[in-house]
Amino acid sequence: MEYCRIAEDVKLGPGVRIHAFVNLYGCTIGDNSRIGAFVEIQKNAIIGRNVKISSHTFICEGVVIEDGVFIGHNVSFINDKYPRATGPTGEPQTEADWKVVPTRVKRGASIGTGATILCGVTIGEDAIVGAGSVVTRDVPDHAVVAGNPARLLRKAVAA
Fold this sequence. Notes:
mainly beta
């Protein structure tokens, strides 16, 4: 795993494949998952088995991705509804100044390239999020959503 930063506290299942220029710390990645180049996965993120995470993706603390999920290139997750650099008196914020808002991507979902997933949402089982979408609310199981904000287009066709 040349040119990767993988902290000692990362839990990797058997068969995990990791490409160059990846930064992993404090996360768990399940069996046979694939992590593309230039991906960062932060502490307390959980990645299931047989997940594909494409290049340039950011997965922050508080994100849970279940088994068999596809994450396209350059997908960004967010874990803070009201991000700030400083507190009320101008001092730099610390971890004690904010609360992680969890996000879940259920089994078999697919998230297209360039999507942004806001915190506090659940993307349903086998759902599809279109490329470039901004997900601001829950996506039902088997739904196809797209746009900014992402809106329901139809139910997904069974594979």
